[in-house]
């Protein structure tokens, strides 16, 4: 099995279907199917069973997995090490973060990078999914979780605050919720459980067990939009709320905080183009651009 064959095998194993594998590899579905059949013929082994639920690995497929993953790690390391010696500020850098962080911090950084380094190409992914930096899904990430992988290096970018917000329209129609009632008689907008896990049962530490959940979102910008439209009470980052004049912060002493981390792979952080992107992001956070505009969200 060579590396090209291993890539096909791993994509089918992880995607579960030829279509999903093709999307992962950015090739057409027919190519994946043809190359998988050729690989099975070359190995004289059936690697997957085609079931109504998708492609399920056989015993041979399970045995082949560790070897294929080892080839992937070696290929990724080779790419990182060779790129780590590249001193040109040009080429592609993949950046991943949430949509809210992208809008407030990463976009200003990219704008400056484009002016200073026009040959640099940024691939930005805004998602709550934690991209795997060791598999080159991203070169630079801004996360609210500090990684524990020893191959990754991280730098603390700062701490951000969450507050409880509702629109002026919502408060006029429903009044302000009372502390200690678990939002009884109120509608709330919350994150999907997959985004926040157990913490999704509270808004800034206040349980919402007695509330009506009007909307579940997986995006901070959608949270902001729904709150601004008066759909309910929501937990919103203060740097977003300051630019939403229709929002009111209730219970100003009720807040939660989270830290943001810049994360890169240790083999890449000295690469000129990756370093340029990381420095630009750090500079935006240090300048505190989210505070440049005066806060317009009235406190109750």
UniProtKB/TrEMBL annotation:
Phosphoprotein among keywords: no
Pfam families: HTH_1, LysR_substrate
Keywords: DNA-binding, Transcription, Transcription regulation
Gene Ontology molecular-function annotations: DNA-binding transcription factor activity; sequence-specific DNA binding
Annotated HTH lysR-type domain residues: 1-58
InterPro entries in the record: LysR-type_TF_proteobact-type, LysR_HTH_N, LysR_subst-bd, WH-like_DNA-bd_sf, WH_DNA-bd_sf
Gene Ontology BP terms: DNA-templated transcription
Protein family according to the UniProt entry: Belongs to the LysR transcriptional regulatory family.
Descriptive protein name: LysR family transcriptional regulator
Organism (species): Bordetella bronchialis
């Amino acid at each position: 099995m060579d590396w090209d064959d291993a890539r096909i095998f791993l994509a089918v194993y992880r995607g579960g279907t030829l279509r999903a594998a093709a999307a992962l590899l950015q090739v057409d579905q027919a190519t994946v199917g043809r190359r998988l059949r050729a690989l099975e013929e070359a190995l004289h082994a059936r690697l997957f069973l085609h079931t109504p639920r998708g492609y399920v690995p056989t015993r041979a497929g399970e045995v082949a997995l560790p070897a294929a993953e080892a080839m992937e790690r070696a290929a990724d390391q080779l790419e990182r090490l060779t790129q780590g010696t590249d001193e040109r500020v040009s080429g592609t850098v993949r950046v991943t973060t949430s949509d809210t962080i992208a809008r407030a911090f990463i976009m200003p950084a990219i704008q400056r990078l484009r002016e200073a380094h026009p040959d640099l190409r940024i691939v930005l992914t805004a998602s709550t999914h934690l991209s795997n930096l060791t598999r080159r899904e991203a070169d630079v990430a801004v996360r609210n979780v500090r990684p524990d992988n020893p191959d990754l290096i991280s730098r603390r970018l700062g701490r951000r605050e969450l507050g409880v917000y509702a629109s002026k329209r919502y408060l006029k129609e429903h009044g302000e919720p009372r502390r200690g009632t678990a939002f009884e008689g109120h509608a709330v907008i919350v994150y999907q459980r997959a985004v926040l896990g157990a913490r999704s049962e509270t808004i800034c530490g206040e349980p919402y067990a007695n509330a009506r959940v009007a909307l579940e979102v997986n995006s901070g910008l959608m949270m902001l939009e729904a709150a601004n439209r008066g759909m309910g009470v929501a937990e919103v980052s203060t740097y977003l709320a300051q630019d939403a004049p229709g929002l009111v912060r209730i219970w100003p002493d009720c807040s939660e905080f989270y830290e943001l981390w810049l994360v890169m792979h240790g083999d890449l952080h000295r690469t000129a183009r990756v370093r340029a992107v990381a420095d630009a992001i750090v500079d935006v956070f240090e300048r505190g651009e989210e505070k440049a505009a005066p806060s317009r969200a009235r406190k109750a």
